[in-house]
Specification:
- This protein has 20 helices and twelve strands.
- It is mainly alpha-helical.
- It has a two-stranded antiparallel ribbon. The protein has a two-stranded antiparallel ribbon with strand order 3-8. It has a two-stranded parallel sheet with strand order 4-5.
- Helix 2 (about 45-65) packs parallel to helix 6 (about 145-170), helix 5 runs antiparallel to helix 6 and helix 6 packs antiparallel against helix 7 (about 185-205).
Length: about 550
């Protein structure tokens, strides 16, 4: 059985090391010094060089999910009303400090997102290097590689900055490869650069490029049209004003282009999108992965993903994802679910958002009671070592195990559970495109009601009017635990976010003992939903960087 399949990038990652920029733990504001033999004097000459550099850009982007930082998607789930922080009952309280926007819960964590900050800017630097040397590359006639490669490069840079500006709000903007101590830019300036890069990608990546299964993981024109819509909805919502270089009509035109070109469609059953949800039970303790109905990482619905391979280790190789082990049940393997570190326990209040007959409930969430996990011999010991345990865990991204308990990331079952999980991180699905169409009022080929109905029909749910409230509720259920809900709440206003998160407060078990998770609304409001800028980065910048409101010492 091969649930996960490597692609062209697994070969490219090795080549990327020849041109990549180190993003390790050196103590400087932005560590961008080259640690490799190839340099700007003997590189960036041919289209082959450009390809290798582009692989380095993809590799840098992948590092944001492979470094030992928190990671965008995991943080987004924990900070929303979907999940509590979780983790082990004797662990530090960093995930609780994140979840509750309260450093007093973990005073030692003054640099919660340090590794994330470093890796994001390291990845941006890789993209900037390729952009800076575009003109010295000998592009071959009408090969079309220039528009394709540079479109992908600038798309990656745009995605990186979109993550960063949402997380930290006030960030330095670098559009060239320089090692410079800069003040933070106005967010509007950052968003202008994001939109410019996405528009460039849409205009220059050929319409038929990167659509083959062998190119799965590479960025397409259509993925950028969808991401541009996400940028528009977030900016106009959170900031309450229009973007200067993007109109609603341009967004609608892009969404219409996605629909009309017919490259994407919903898979027939929601559960088949997720490996752990698509494994077929044969008996109380037996699962046969050969009978999996998983649609595969390259399916008709996935429009944009990060790719991983099972070669993570503690010697500096970071090719697998680092966030998936956090979703695993704490010290508890129950096939098809592999054990992990028990972060992001699902809030019972979020479970209650689903109709009991909605198949997305059982495809998205592990219920330890109804699935028989609570009857296993190791269950009580696992709960005794778990913090903020609720009985519910994320199924979409649960690491998976064979019936014998071995990690299924490798066919032979030899993958290490901590460092070799490889499920794709899906950034954009066609279902999201349909729900954005519904929210924006429809496009010529698909009305708002038709778009909403298409998503609900796939789940066997009856039609409801395409009101804003219904659409947002549908987004919560359909896109749960995909790093989207937090930003959907925040773009409606920090007060909406705070109310939703506070409403998710409730009973948990800490180390097997009854406890309660509580939130202080004023913590969220004061910080405007923005993440902490690592304090050591502020110090290293000689205080040119300023901390976000509410996070000051």
């Amino acid at each position: 059985m091969k649930i996960f399949k490597s692609n062209i990038f697994s070969l490219g990652f090795a080549a990327a090391a020849l041109v990549s920029i180190a993003t390790g733990c050196a103590e400087s504001f932005l560590d961008v010094s080259s640690k490799v033999e190839s340099n700007t004097e003997n590189f960036y000459k041919t289209e082959g060089d450009a390809w290798r550099a582009l692989i380095g850009c993809y590799d840098g982007w992948r590092q944001i999910s492979s470094c030992p930082g928190v990671g965008f998607m995991l943080a987004s789930d924990v900070l929303s009303d979907e999940c509590y922080g979780g983790t082990g009952s004797t662990d530090g309280y960093g995930y609780q400090a994140m979840d509750q926007f309260d450093l007093s819960l973990s005073p030692a964590d003054q640099n919660l997102y340090e590794q994330d900050w470093k890796v994001y800017y390291g990845a941006v630097y890789r993209c900037n290097e390729l952009c800076d040397h575009e003109e010295q590359i000998n592009w071959i006639g009408e090969s079309g590689k220039r528009g394709l490669y540079m479109g992908e490069c600038r798309a990656i840079r745009a995605i990186l900055y979109f993550d960063m500006v949402r997380m930290w709000g006030n960030i330095p903007l670098f559009l060239e490869a320089v090692d410079e101590n800069r003040e933070q830019a106005d967010p509007a300036e950052v968003y202008k650069a994001i939109v410019d890069d996405m528009k460039y990608a849409i205009a220059n990546i050929p319409a038929d490029a990167n659509l083959a299964n062998s190119d799965n993981g590479r960025i397409t024109k259509y993925a950028m049209e969808a991401m541009l819509a996400r940028v528009y909805l977030y900016y106009t919502g959170y900031y309450g004003k229009d973007l200067e270089n993007l109109t609603k009509q341009e967004v609608l035109d892009g969404l219409e282009d996605i629909v009309k070109n017919g490259n994407y469609a919903l898979v027939s059953e929601f559960k088949n999108l997720w490996p752990a949800a698509s494994l077929v039970p044969l008996g109380e303790d037996s699962w046969d992965p050969e009978l999996s109905t998983f649609a595969g990482q390259a399916n008709s619905e996935f429009m944009l993903q990060q790719k991983f391979t099972p070669s993570q280790d503690y010697d500096g190789n970071n090719d697998s994802n680092r966030w998936q082990v956090m979703f695993g049940m704490r010290n508890l393997t129950f096939a098809p679910y592999l054990n992990g570190w028990g972060a992001a326990t699902v809030c019972p209040s979020f479970v209650n958002k689903y109709s009991p007959d909605d198949p997305r409930l059982t495809a998205s969430i592990i219920n330890t009671a109804s699935e028989g996990i609570a009857e296993s011999s190791s269950y009580s010991d696992a709960v005794a070592g778990w913090r903020e345990f609720t009985g519910y865990c994320v199924k979409k991204y649960s690491p998976i195990a064979y019936a014998n308990g071995l990690n299924a990331s490798k066919e032979e079952g030899t993958a290490n559970f901590q460092e070799q999980n490889t499920q794709d991180y899906v950034l954009m699905r066609y279902a999201d495109v349909l729900l954005m169409i519904a929210e924006l009022g429809g496009v010529p080929s698909k009305s708002a009601q038709d778009a909403l109905d298409e998503v609900r029909n796939r789940a066997g749910m009856a039609s409801v009017p395409a009101t804003f409230e219904n659409i947002m509720n549908e987004r919560a259920i359909e896109l749960a635990f995909e790093g989207i809900r937090y930003w959907d709440l925040l773009r409606q206003g920090v007060d909406v976010l705070a109310d939703a998160v506070c409403a998710s407060a409730g009973p948990v078990k800490n180390g097997g003992v009854d406890a309660t998770v509580n939130y202080k609304r004023e913590n969220i409001i004061a910080k405007k939903g923005l993440f902490q800028i690592p304090n050591n980065q502020i110090t290293l910048s000689n205080y040119k960087l300023k901390q976000n409101p509410g996070w000051e010492n």
